[in-house]
Design a protein that fits this description.
The complex is a heterodimer.
Chain A: H1 2-7, H2 9-58, E1 60-61, E2 71-76, E3 81-87, E4 90-91, E5 96-97, E6 104-107, E7 117-119, E8 138-143, E9 148-159, E10 174-181, E11 187-199
Parallel strand pairs in A: 3-6, 7-10
Antiparallel strand pairs in A: 1-11, 2-3, 2-8, 4-5, 6-7, 8-9, 9-11, 10-11
Chain B: H1 30-60
The chains are: A alpha+beta, B mainly alpha.
Chain lengths: ~210, ~60
Amino acid sequence: MQRYSKSSPPSKWSIVTLLAISLVLLGGLYIAWGPFLSAWQRLDGARHNATNFRQAKASITQVADLQLGTPRTITLPRLNIALPVTKGTYNSATRTWTIDREHAFYIPPRSATSTPVIYGHAIPTVFMRLSGVAPDEILYIANSKGQLLLFHYVDDTTLSPNDDSILHTYYPNTIVLLTCSGTYFQYRHALRFVYAGMQQSLLASSERI
Amino acid sequence: MYNKGMRSVITSGTVTATGAVILPNTGGNTLGTFLAYAAITIGSTALISQLTVRIVRRVYHV
């Protein structure tokens, strides 16, 4: 009797076990893939960014202060991010910003003591790969004046959605990129990029970007 | 000065938080995250319950 009860259940249990293990593995892979990719990109960036930035800086024209103009495109070559930029507007009645799944959005400085911000969705086609940013990450912005501006990443912070201090904080010669972070995208991730100059060799072709 | 490969935190600047404006909601695929956590929860619960049943059977010979 004891032998019967021991031998019959395993075949039934093994299918359930297989299913349970598959669920855990698939869920774990989905959750772990993003952080793994980010860590890999940060490692890659730490190895190559300093050299890439030195090379990019070699061909720029030093300009004393940032004259941003109106951004048209934003490009982070190593992270494979290249997006058109459009103006982001705030609806104070619904307390929401304009956003879509194809553009980055520009918030001009609200006063002389605030910093321009560009925000976008944390999805693969927009800013998801920003989590893989590493020191000296190169950022290009082509503006309405036909200039190609070079920036490099310096630091970042995580904010609550209700903390709008980033829109009222002045960082000289800086642009801030903003996207969502957290398991359920409950935080806002602000990344600071400092201006390094205009890339002279690409000025003529910047209109095509 | 920061360490290469390490991320630091914005510490400088004049901060004036007014709280009047909500920052843009730039969230990604929350449904996918929810489903992944649901799969992990269901799968691990099933595994733990099976393990518990096996231990109880072995200990109490039922």
